[in-house]
Structures are given as structure tokens and as C-alpha cells.
């Protein structure tokens, strides 16, 4: 997961959005060490994917949404 955080940093990512899930705890730990912020978003109405998109458009940076498959997340 530290490699994932390093790649995100190398692409200029400073904030990721997501829905916390136990399977991502190692990623969250790596993000915390890297300085990349994680903002929690609600899965209702696709907001978990729209916020990174809006942020990317506004800043010109890469937008990242972290989530797991399940009944609330379209795959």
C-alpha cells in the first residue's frame, strides 16, 4: 500500500475521497504517512464519485475516489 501512496503522490494527488472499509486500513495507514488527506464521503447518489471529479476539474489535479464493491457502490 505504500507503493500506491507513492504513485498517488508522484501524480500530484494531495487529497483522496472515499468510503471507509476495513479492507482499506493498510492503504489509509500508508496515506497518513505520505501526507495525502482522506476525506470521507457518503455513498448516497454517487457523491463519492462526483466530489473527486469536481475537485479535479476545479484544480486540474487527479481526482481519486476509494471504495469497495457492494450494494451502495455501482461496479
Radius of gyration: 12 Å
> How far is it from the N-terminal to the C-terminal residue, by CA?
22 Å
Tell me the structural class. Answer: alpha/beta
Order of helices and strands: HEHEHE
- How much of the sequence lies in strands comes to 5-15%
Shape: flat
- Uncertain runs are none
Write structural notes for this entry:
With 75 residues, this protein is α/β, with parallel strands linked by helices. It is built from three helices and three strands. The chain has helices at residues 2-10, 25-34, 47-59; strands at residues 15-18, 37-40, 65-66. It has a three-stranded parallel sheet. Helix 1 crosses helix 2.
Keywords:
flat, 3 helices, about 80 residues, alpha/beta, 3-stranded parallel β-sheet
TL;DR?
This protein has helices spanning 2-10, 25-34, 47-59, and strands spanning 15-18, 37-40, 65-66. It is α/β, with parallel strands linked by helices and 75 residues long.
Please outline the helices and strands:
Blueprint: H1 2-10, E1 15-18, H2 25-34, E2 37-40, H3 47-59, E3 65-66
Parallel strand pairs: 1-2, 1-3
Amino acid at each position: 500500500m505504500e507503493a500506491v501512496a507513492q504513485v498517488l503522490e508522484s501524480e500530484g494527488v494531495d487529497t483522496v475521497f472515499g468510503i471507509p472499509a476495513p479492507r482499506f486500513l493498510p492503504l489509509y495507514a500508508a496515506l497518513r504517512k505520505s501526507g495525502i488527506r482522506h476525506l470521507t464521503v457518503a455513498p448516497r447518489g454517487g457523491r463519492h464519485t462526483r466530489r473527486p471529479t469536481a475537485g479535479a476539474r476545479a484544480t486540474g489535479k487527479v481526482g481519486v475516489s476509494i471504495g469497495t464493491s457492494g450494494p451502495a457502490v455501482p461496479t
